[in-house]
Amino acid sequence: MTGRLDADVAVVGLGAMGAMSAWHLARTGASVLGFEQFGIAHDRGAAGGESRLFRMAYHEGPEYVPLLRRARELWWELAEASGRDLFIPTGCLSIGLPGLAPMVNVRRSVTEHDLEHEILGPDELAVRYPQHRLHDGEIGILDAAGGMLRPELAVLAAAQQAIALGARLHEHTAVRGIEPGNGGVTILTDDARYRVRRVVVTAGPWTGELVPAVAVTVKPIVLTWFAPADLPAYGPDRFPAFVRDTDGVHLFGCPVLDGMSVKCGFADVWEPLAGAQDLTRDLPDAALRPLSDAVRRFLPGLHPEPIRHNVYMDGYTPDRTAVVGVLPDAPSVVVLAGFSGHGFKMAPVFGAIAADLALEGGTPFGIARMSPARFAAAT
Ligand SMILES: Cc1cc2nc3c(=O)[nH]c(=O)nc-3n(C[C@H](O)[C@H](O)[C@H](O)COP(=O)(O)OP(=O)(O)OC[C@H]3O[C@@H](n4cnc5c(N)ncnc54)[C@H](O)[C@@H]3O)c2cc1C
């Protein structure tokens, strides 16, 4: 590569994956430049909304468990290094009929990977967790490694660790173009251009604007908060994070973290947007009705009108498997995108993978199914 280099690696987009990538890259001693179009730890993309579920017994399949194991270790490392309370270990309760595909995957995860868990039959589940109104035959699987993460704080913690290790992170600086060539990459912003050896693109729902070959579908996700009558019964010590599949309704939720309300949401039911720029937080009242109905049916101890709501978004792939790897036709460009509503919990391990890919060209983690070539071929 000819000419002056501004850094070994640039990270474009400092949300969940980008902040973790910058942290891991800086830990190796590489020189790192980072760019974020908004402020660090903003809540206008995929990493807002106060809490995220961490689950190790995985609805999406047991093949994720090795990544989840390493992610969990890294969450505690980041919490300790930053002195911030990033992980609240509540356990995670999966509820559903035992034959449902997600419940089968949860059971396979715990048996194939020997995860600490409890299987609660209908009677025991009703006694232990009376907050949930159950349907006949539903069981619970309590994943002991599960818990809650704090997304905005986590992004902030990772970015601050990266800065402490020497990374130069530019906030309020949108990247307008990424030009691979001449053995490196040129990064264009409104008022500067930078030359780096490799770039890690972690632009979340905006990825298609920078890397058209990875045009993830942008979907909003609405979060809603409901007030319990009996506040202590919904605290982290008595009400684990949960994921529930009943009658085609997929509901997830978190215990009270704000002193007054339980967060609930549906994944994967919201209509796609034309692009990230179309996100709106103004919702018609009718859009919240299905969530109120689900709360009325399944969590009768909560007042069924949300006391607040907000709208976030994530990039989705057709099979809900992320795109992680080096672009086949541009070896200096690493892309991590399309986390499809379930990537946050794995962000620290994906940050480590991004550093491996950018600095070594490969990683010991099993990510073959996430190859960008696969995604390009599928579109
Ligand atoms: C409401 C909601 C609930 C979720 N719940 C869970 C959960 O419980 N558990 C779980 O594991 N996952 C969950 N997820 C998924 C998880 O949060 C996402 O998969 C993850 O945050 C994706 O991270 P990302 O880095 O790809 O995107 P983001 O966190 O959005 O980061 C992308 C960043 O890139 C920046 N950017 C974009 N373009 C540019 C540019 N041109 N120049 C500079 N900066 C740019 C953006 O501003 C943004 O900061 C949820 C997602 C949502 C939306």
Short description:
It is built from 9 helices and 19 strands. The chain has 379 residues and is of the alpha+beta class.
Q: What is the residue-mean pLDDT, rounded to a whole number? A: 96
- Domains counted in the coordinates: how many? 2
Poorly predicted regions are none
Give me the secondary-structure category: alpha+beta
CATH class of the largest domain: Alpha Beta
- Per CATH, which architecture of the largest domain? 2-Layer Sandwich
Rg (C-alpha, Å): 21 Å
- Alpha plus pi helix count: 9
The strand count comes to 19
Estimate what percentage of residues fall within beta strands. Answer: 25-35%
Percent range of helical residues: 25-40%
> What would CATH call the homologous superfamily of the largest domain?
D-Amino Acid Oxidase, subunit A, domain 2
Largest sheet: 8 strands, mixed
Q: CATH topology of the largest domain, which one?
A: D-Amino Acid Oxidase, Chain A, domain 2
Are any ligands bound, and if so which? Answer: flavin-adenine dinucleotide
Gross morphology: globular
SSE series? EHEEHEEHEHEEHEEEEHEEEEHEEEHH
Q: In whole angstroms, how far apart are the ends?
A: 33 Å
Topology:
Blueprint: E1 7-12, H1 16-27, E2 32-35, E3 52-54, H2 65-82, E4 87-88, E5 92-96, H3 101-112, E6 117-120, H4 122-128, E7 139-143, E8 147-149, H5 151-164, E9 168-170, E10 175-181, E11 184-189, E12 193-201, H6 207-210, E13 217-226, E14 241-246, E15 249-254, E16 262-266, H7 285-298, E17 308-316, E18 323-327, E19 330-337, H8 347-360, H9 372-378
Parallel strand pairs: 1-2, 1-12, 2-9, 5-14, 12-19
Antiparallel strand pairs: 3-8, 4-8, 5-7, 6-7, 10-11, 11-12, 13-16, 13-17, 14-15, 15-16, 18-19
Helix pairs in contact: 1-5, 1-8, 2-5, 2-8
The structure holds flavin-adenine dinucleotide.
